[in-house]
Structures are given as structure tokens and as C-alpha cells.
Specification:
globular; single chain
């Protein structure tokens, strides 16, 4: 299929997560001429953002798919923020030369998608990207920390809180995170233990210890 055909494919912006996947599945039937590209984008949207390192991606995508993902012209008229974030995320993860070009916009896009649907894996991936190239975020370090700290305190899942802390520690250091979060985590351990929610307590203890 030629790139000129790809250029006519439009994917609605401001639709994310499961709703985006439903739209893409529908478009496979409504626009069969774009089936190859839509199949790839659906696969991209099913990528596990929690396990999204280079080796994970090389096992998940075929060589032909990786070649297609490396062709920017393939999506030159797609404006959906999640599709673009995931696409360029794969490009910069597989080829570190792309970090400078894409990392800030991918980080911002994931943060925006999280703001729209509150699905935790988007913000966790956005934080993970910061550790790839801290210098590109040095002017935003404290702003990012404050945003993520707010998300952490509002999050009701001990599992996702643990994942957030893992990323924050890798960027800001253990000492900073202990100062910011230890008192809260102690309180949560006591709360979960009192309510016999030992699974959640274990997630807290795993970080606290």
C-alpha cells in the first residue's frame, strides 16, 4: 500500500483508550483500503505501556511493522494524540537518536491523555520517559514532580502508587521520595492492615522497606 493512500486516513482526535480502539476497529470495516495501517495502529494501542522497553517492543512487533513505524510519512495526517504519542514512543525507544525530536511531545501527550481519561498507565509511561533524558526536562522537573505527586495522593490503587514511586525514585532519588511520601505510606500500611487488605499493604511495604 502506498504512503499516498495512508495520507488520506484521518483518526479523530480527543478520543482515547477503549473508545479509540472501538473507533479503529470500526474503521477497519468502513475504510478497508487502510486495513494494513489500521491493524498496525490497533496493535500499537494494545502495547503495554508499563512494559515498553526496546526488547519488549522487538518481541511484540515484526520487522516489517518496525520498518513501517519508522516511516513518518505513514501518519503524516493523523492528529490523534494517543496514536502519535504511542507511535513516536516506539520510535524513540527503539532508536535513541529520536529522543531529542520526540520525547517532550510524547511526554506531554501522555500527560494530556491521562488528564482526559484518568487511566494510570498513561501517566506512568509519561514519567518513565523523563528518566530517558533528564536534561530535556530540567526546566520542568519540579512542575512534573508536583503534578505526579498530586496524582499519587489521589490514586486509590496501591499497585499503581507503587509503580509511580518506582519511576519517581529513578528520577528524583530515594531520599527526596522518602521525605515526600514516607509518612503517607506508613498511614496507608496501618489502614490496609486494620482493614485486612493485606495485598495492598504488601505493595506499600515493598516500597517502604
Amino acid at each position: 500500500m502506498e504512503n499516498s493512500a495512508y495520507s488520506t486516513l484521518l483518526i479523530e482526535d480527543n478520543i482515547f483508550g477503549f473508545e479509540l480502539k472501538k473507533l479503529l476497529w470500526k474503521q477497519q470495516y468502513d475504510q478497508p483500503e487502510h486495513k494494513q495501517l489500521l491493524t498496525l495502529i490497533i496493535k500499537l494501542c494494545n502495547t503495554d505501556l508499563i512494559h515498553c522497553e526496546a526488547e519488549d517492543l522487538k518481541m511484540y512487533f515484526t520487522e516489517n511493522e518496525i520498518d513501517l513505524l519508522g516511516d513518518k510519512n505513514t501518519i503524516n495526517r493523523i492528529e490523534n494524540k494517543e496514536v502519535l504519542a504511542r507511535w513516536f514512543d516506539v520510535m524513540l525507544t527503539l532508536n535513541k537518536k529520536n529522543i531529542k525530536v520526540y520525547i517532550n511531545s510524547v511526554h506531554e501527550a501522555y500527560m494530556m491523555v491521562y488528564s482526559a481519561n484518568n487511566e494510570m498507565h498513561y501517566i506512568i509511561r509519561s514519567i518513565a520517559l523523563v528518566k530517558y533524558a533528564k536534561n530535556f526536562f530540567k526546566n520542568e522537573f519540579e512542575v512534573i514532580f508536583d503534578k505526579v505527586k498530586k496524582v499519587f495522593f489521589e490514586c486509590t490503587s496501591a499497585y499503581y502508587q507503587q509503580l509511580i514511586l518506582i519511576e519517581l525514585i529513578s528520577i528524583y532519588g530515594e531520599t527526596r521520595c522518602q521525605v515526600e511520601f514516607n509518612e503517607y505510606i506508613e498511614q496507608k500500611i496501618n489502614h490496609f492492615s486494620t482493614n485486612k487488605d493485606f495485598r495492598s499493604a504488601r505493595f506499600c511495604i515493598r516500597y517502604y522497606s
